[in-house]
């Protein structure tokens, strides 16, 4: 549920006197292979939706349509299709920024057969992250169905591509996500910034569905020691001048130290923000106690079961219901209560204080300001909150050749020779190296071989491997 928490952070801090944050734009590289005048490596910003191909690359040719250049309408209306013909490169749609949401541009491009979308900025500025729509516009069904990767490019680079295309040049591009996530060793460390609130509509439902679907994979990773997972929860503090206000009393615990927005955005009914803070704290304490007992993976069971058994709509978002779930998982309720402490006391809570400190960005990671947020090897994940997409991103965080078996499952090894002719992954268990950097000129099969060089139609070296050959 990508709640616009950045705005709320600023609301609190404006009351206090300032609004300071550091949002890091996660990027991947883009290499132009032709024409000669544009050959170079460029930066682009990864969109906060769709499915970036973490750990891999995608090669395609750029198309800038004569009509619907902002991609705000269906391309069926202007009778344009970007589907690749047999033997052709995948199509990357170049669209102009403006007039509609980034997500709608991507959706229209995907429906027209594009393999990826590049959005050219409309002003000269540093790259930004293309995000999902604001809350009131975030319920469109298509948002969860965007599967193509997206990238924002600078205005000057976009103008250069348009100029080359206007001269009749073919613009070929290699989108490369291999270094988007660090992969230093055999263990991946990742964080999931979440919330126990279930009253935010489609976004909350999407997050609950992700936790339920990803639970099995997450628990395998943790049980085998492949990953180190930590859940986190965002809170704010109430400025001293407003601690006695109705808003702070209903949204905060521990005398304004830890606050959350009202789940229904209505102070006169339902649950209050402080109820959310306490349940968030209970989930954080559950993880702490389970982790200390050597079973951190139980957090996934608790959060899944709590969402099913204790929803706000049934008036079961309570300590009593939570305790029943905790007991069913064999965890000591008393230890969790001790961790929670007294929400009315005028003292710091060690767990929530640590959570507030962790919200602030360090090193290459920016501040956490939206929910949910995944951080993998200290980089914020950009893309769809989907089991397959997230699993692929986590698997890209392992040092090459150290990926666990789960990373070789069908859900991760997408045969992109059959999907947009973009490349393919092969089973390492069958002694075949994963071909993540592969250009497919035709729907092809990959075979093990002792050595190979793949040459493009213009004779340039496109890909090389010691144990893979592509038969065209």
Summarize the structure.
The chain has 472 residues and is α+β, with helices and mostly antiparallel strands. The protein has eleven helices and 17 strands. It folds into three domains: 5-20 and 192-386, no CATH class; 27-176, Glucose Oxidase, domain 1 (3-Layer(bba) Sandwich); 410-471, no CATH class.
Features:
472 residues; alpha+beta; Glucose Oxidase, domain 1; seven-stranded mixed beta barrel; four-stranded mixed beta sheet; 11 helices; disordered N terminus; disordered C terminus; PA_domain; EGF-like domain
Characterise the protein shown here.
With 472 residues, this protein is α+β, with helices and mostly antiparallel strands. It has three domains: 5-20 and 192-386, no CATH class; 27-176, Glucose Oxidase, domain 1 (3-Layer(bba) Sandwich); 410-471, no CATH class. It has eleven helices and 17 strands. It has helices at residues 5-16, 102-111, 155-166, 202-223, 246-251, 273-292, 298-309, 319-328, 333-340, 350-359, 387-395; strands at 27-34, 40-46, 57-63, 91-96, 116-120, 150-153, 172-176, 188-194, 227-233, 252-253, 258-259, 373-376, 379-380, 445-448, 452-455, 461-465, 468-471. The protein starts with a helix and ends with a strand. Its main location: membrane.
